[in-house]
């Protein structure tokens, strides 16, 4: 068998790691590890099915030049969105575009990175598995 890679982990530059850690924890990530320096130089966070690393930036990230968007899934979008609002975040109202008829929201992290969150419940997952001809992933 050929060698493979795994654990795809985006690495984002962040001006204030503590602030960004709090933001990603609000989204549902758990802080897994840091460099244990003061101030922090990097942090790794995991969520169900994903990970992100935050690296202390020396200069504000040039978000308009990044060309990247991050996308997550919530199994019950309306209460998830409300939890974000209650935590002081500013997600968009739920939108229902053709590509996401079950709903999606958008927000930006403290450094301006663009994050989408779509509703993805059991119904959406079952329909998707049927469409791709699989019984599980």
Automatic annotation (TrEMBL):
Domain VOC as annotated: residue spans: 4-120
Pfam families, alphabetized: Glyoxalase
InterPro entries, per database record: Glyas_Bleomycin-R_OHBP_Dase, Glyas_Fos-R_dOase_dom, VOC_core
PROSITE patterns: VOC
Name of the protein described by the UniProt record: VOC family protein
Source organism of the structure: Pseudogemmatithrix spongiicola
């Amino acid at each position: 068998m050929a060698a493979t890679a795994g654990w795809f982990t985006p690495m984002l530059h962040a001006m204030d790691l503590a602030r960004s850690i709090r933001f990603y924890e609000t989204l549902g990530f758990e802080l897994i590890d840091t460099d244990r320096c003061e101030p922090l130089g990097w942090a790794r966070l995991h969520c169900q099915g994903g990970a992100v690393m935050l690296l202390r930036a020396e200069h504000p990230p040039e978000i308009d030049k990044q060309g990247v968007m991050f996308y997550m899934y919530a199994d019950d979008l309306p209460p998830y969105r409300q939890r974000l609002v209650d935590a002081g975040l500013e997600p968009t109202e739920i939108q229902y575009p053709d590509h996401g008829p079950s709903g999606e929201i958008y927000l930006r992290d403290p450094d301006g990175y663009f994050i989408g969150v779509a509703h993805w419940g059991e119904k959406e997952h079952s329909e998707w598995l049927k469409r791709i001809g699989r019984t599980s992933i």
